[in-house]
Amino acid sequence: MKVWIAPPLRSYTHQARFVEVEGSTLREVLGHLEENYPGIRFRMIDEQDKIREHIHIFVGQWFICW
Question: Which SUPFAM superfamilies does its entry note (predicted)?
Answer without folding.
Answer: MoaD/ThiS
